[in-house]
């Protein structure tokens, strides 16, 4: 079973989305300042998928900001936005295999 969370549950790992309750078709800003940038990564990509089976996957380049890394994606019609992060050395932050999963409100 997939674990779904709102962004407050991932604050300890420095993963935040806005809005916290996205709807299909809405732009979702993903902010990340977790394990990879804290370990010195200068380039981070968000690995994005939807639903339990990670459909419509894509790697999205994140822009470095003073608060970490950010990118914006558009939520689709699945019930879950799934995110993990990787750096240019192929190191991953996938929340210890649980990934970062956010509800998409229909």
Short description:
The chain is mainly β.
Helix percent reads under 10%
- At CATH level 2, the architecture is Sandwich
What gyration radius follows from the Cα positions, in whole Å? 13 Å
* H-E order: EEHEEEEEEE
Tell me the strand percentage band: over 45%
Could you name the ranges where pLDDT drops below 50 across 5 or more consecutive residues?
1-5
Structural shape: globular
- The name CATH uses for the topology is Immunoglobulin-like
Overview of this structure, please?
GO terms for molecular function: starch binding. Residues 25-105 form the Carbohydrate binding module family domain. It comes from Sporomusa ovata. The two termini are 20 Å apart. The chain has one domain (7-103): Immunoglobulin-like (Sandwich). The protein is globular, with a radius of gyration of 13 Å. Helices cover 4% and strands 45% of the residues. 27% of the residues are buried. With 106 residues, it is mainly beta. Strands 3, 4, 7, 8 and 9 form a 5-stranded antiparallel β-sheet that branches. A 4-stranded antiparallel β-sheet has the order 1-2-6-5, with no helix packed on it. Strand 5 (63-65) and strand 6 (68-74) form a beta hairpin. Mean pLDDT is 89; it is low at 1-5.
